[in-house]
Amino acid sequence: MAGIRDVAKKANVAASTVSRALNNSGYVSQTAREKIKKAVEELDYIPDTWLRNLYQQKSAVVGVIINSLEYPYFATVTRFIENKLAEKGYSMMLCATQNSKVRERIFFDMLKRGQIDGIIAEYLLLDDREYQHIQKPVVTLDRHLLDIPLVCSDHHTGGRLAAEHLIQKSCKKILYIEDNSSYLSSTPSYQSCVAFKDTLLQAGITPIPAKVNWKEEEKDYFHTFATKILTQHPNIDAIFAADIPAMALFNEATRRNIAIPEQLKIVAYDGSPWLNQTLRQLTCIEQPFEQLAEKSVEVISALIENKEITDNVSVIPVKFIQGESS
User: Fold this and answer.
1) Is 307 exposed, middle or buried (0-12, 13-18, 19+ CB in 10 A)?
2) What's residue 113's pLDDT?
3) What angle do CA 199, 200, 206 make, to 5 degrees?
4) Contacts of 157 by beta carbon, 8 Å cutoff, 6+ apart
5) Buried b or exposed e, range 243-281, using 16+ CB within 10 angstroms
6) Strands 118-121 and 61-66, bridge-based pairing
């Protein structure tokens, strides 16, 4: 079987030049590219997908921007994205920004330089103005960004379903957890809180808001947060929260011998597989992780291949899952 040195010898170039051409990781003259392409064809060195990318001077790599894999939502949807990209012949390069704008800028600079073919952004910190002149394939997950294609869950329906469920269960003192930053309040996912609150108000119930700091890096933050919530609000009979705080509140309520669901009902939002780590399954609004990934990959691959996008916004239905916590 031919190796990279065989390709280099036949093309009369250095092996490092062949490597740069195949990985699109540095400058290679057009003449050298043509020689390498011809040698690759004659030696049958690489798969057709790699050969096609060499012809088109593409990397076959899609970047995925998240905040951190510590959050179940990001970990779950990113796993599906990687699988869906592989099915289409792309590799995934992950950028966990850890709330760093510098890391985000570096990743977009790689896109501008052609080191990656496109970006699926699950989490963005930079202002819209910094994306105004990016004429490259970009898809956002759950973030409105200029006229860039958006894929998101039907969060409004998710919030409404959660509220209607708790109303049906005769809950009156209902607390909901929302983010304390301006970032999430500008995303489609925030509509779950808006719809939840509005549905309760229409039923004559005034929900109690509480704010969580998703940027907090303290190891025991969510345990401390749950302890504080249940201490400050000992008479609540229901909670609506994202997976991580919902899990922390479930554990703290159990520690305090608060009967679930008899005394306290909990509805989680996201429904990631991580949620099943509790001894009893939590009732949840489940986001369509695999469908979100599939649609994001479908759109980014179409953009990379210069195909027309029919819908700039794709909204995918959520699902109510009855568990033992309500």
Assistant:
1) exposed
2) 78
3) 145
4) 195, 317, 318
5) bbbbbbbbebbeeeebebbeebbbbbbbbbebbeebeee
6) parallel
Same domain, 190 and 301: no
For residue 39, what is the domain's CATH number?
A: 1.10.260.40
Quick check: 315 pLDDT over 80?
yes
DSSP helix/strand/coil, 262: coil
The verdict on pTM exceeding 0.85 is: no
Same domain, yes or no: 235 and 297: no
Please report where in the chains the tokens 């570096």 appear, as a residue.
Answer: 106
Q: Quick check: 242 and 268 in contact, CB under 8 A?
A: yes
Is residue 324 included in any domain, yes or no?
Answer: no
Q: Which two tokens stand for residue 139?
A: 């898809």
pLDDT value at position 18? 83
> 320 - beta bridge partners?
285
Whether residue 323 lies inside any domain: the answer is no
Residue 211 C-alpha from the chain's centroid: 22
Are 139 and 118 a contacting pair, CB within 8 Å?
Answer: yes
**Across residues 207-217, what is the average pLDDT?**
85
Max alpha carbon distance in the chain (Å)? 79
Task: Pull the structure tokens for residue 148.
Answer: 């860039």
Tell me how far apart the alpha carbons of residues 116 and 88 are, in angstroms, rounded to a whole number. Answer: 15
Give pLDDT tens digits for 225-266: 999 999 999 999 999 999 999 999 999 999 999 999 999 999
Which DSSP string corresponds to 1-26? ---HHHHHHHHTS-HHHHHHHHHT-S
